[in-house]
Design a protein that fits this description.
alpha/beta; 42% helix; 254 residues; Rossmann fold; seven-stranded parallel beta sheet
Length: 254
C-alpha cells in the first residue's frame, strides 16, 4: 500500500458534520489521517460521517466528539478526548462558526457574544488546549477559517465580519509565537462556495454573495476548499505560515 501524505497524523476538525468541515474531514482521512469529528451536540450526521470515514479503506479512523468549543471546559474536553482516542494531535482545523444575519440596530450583546465565542474564542481556546500536543508533532499545523465578508464587508453581519477578521490577526500572531516549534498557522478564506445553509444562517442569500461574482462564472465546491486545507496540513507546505489564502474563484482579489 502506498504511504499517504498524512499517514498516522491526527487531525481535529471543529464544526465538521456538514459542508466544508465535512469535506475537510473526508479529505484528510483519504490521505491517511486519523480524524476527530466535532459538533456542539451528538447527531445522526456525526455518526454517519464517522462510519463513512471508517469505511474508506485508507487506514484512517474517525471518532465523533460532541463539545462546545466556545467555552474553556468544552475546548479542553475536545482536546483531552481526542488525545485519549488517538494519543496525539498533529493538525487543528478551526472551522466551527455561526453565520447569523442581524441588523446592527437589533444586535444584542448576547448575539454578539455567541458568534464571537464560537468563531474567535473557540479558535483561541482550541489552539491553547492543543498546543502542548502540537509542539510534540514533527508536522504541527493549525488552519483557521476566515470568511469573504470579513474582507468585503456585508450588511447585517457585524458580529460575523468582526469575528472572522479577528481570525486573521490571531493567525498572524500565532505564526510568530509558534514558529519556534515548527508549527505552521494559516487562514483559509472560502468565498461563494456551494454549501447548504441552515436556519441559523438566516433566510435568503447573503448580501455580499449578490455583489461579488467569480471569474469562472460558478460557485466553488466544498472539495476544492478541502483540497487547499489538505495541502496546508501536509509535508509540502512546511514553509507556508502566517498567510491568509483566499479560495473564491477570483470573486475577491487579495
Amino acid at each position: 500500500m502506498t504511504t499517504k501524505l498524512l499517514q498516522d497524523r491526527v487531525a481535529i476538525v471543529t464544526g465538521s458534520v456538514k459542508n466544508i468541515g465535512r469535506a475537510i474531514a473526508i479529505s484528510l482521512a483519504k490521505e491517511g489521517a486519523q480524524v476527530v469529528i466535532n459538533a456542539r451536540s451528538h447527531s445522526e450526521q456525526m455518526d454517519e460521517l464517522v462510519h463513512e470515514i471508517n469505511q474508506l479503506g485508507t487506514g484512517a479512523k474517525a471518532v465523533g466528539i460532541a463539545a462546545d468549543i466556545s467555552n474553556v471546559e468544552g475546548a479542553k474536553q475536545l482536546i483531552e478526548e481526542s488525545v485519549k482516542a488517538f494519543g496525539k494531535i498533529d493538525i487543528l482545523i478551526n472551522n466551527a462558526a455561526l453565520r447569523r444575519h442581524t441588523p446592527f440596530a437589533e444586535l444584542e450583546w448576547e448575539d454578539w457574544r455567541e458568534v464571537m465565542g464560537t468563531i474567535l474564542d473557540g479558535a483561541y481556546l482550541c489552539a491553547k488546549a492543543a498546543l502542548p500536543y502540537l509542539k510534540e508533532s514533527s508536522m504541527g499545523s493549525i488552519v483557521n477559517f476566515g470568511g469573504l465578508s470579513a474582507h468585503t464587508g456585508s450588511k447585517e453581519r457585524a458580529h460575523v465580519v468582526t469575528a472572522k477578521m479577528g481570525l486573521i490577526g490571531l493567525t498572524r500572531a500565532l505564526a510568530h509565537d509558534l514558529s519556534e516549534f515548527g508549527i505552521t498557522v494559516n487562514c483559509v478564506v472560502p468565498g461563494l462556495i456551494d454549501t447548504v445553509r441552515g436556519e441559523s444562517a438566516g433566510s435568503g442569500t447573503p448580501e455580499h454573495h449578490g455583489k461579488n461574482k467569480t471569474l469562472f462564472g460558478r460557485r466553488g465546491s466544498i472539495e476544492e476548499v478541502a483540497n487547499l486545507v489538505e495541502f496546508l496540513c501536509g509535508p509540502k507546505a512546511r514553509y507556508i505560515t502566517g498567510q491568509t489564502i483566499h479560495a473564491n474563484g477570483g470573486a475577491y482579489l487579495a
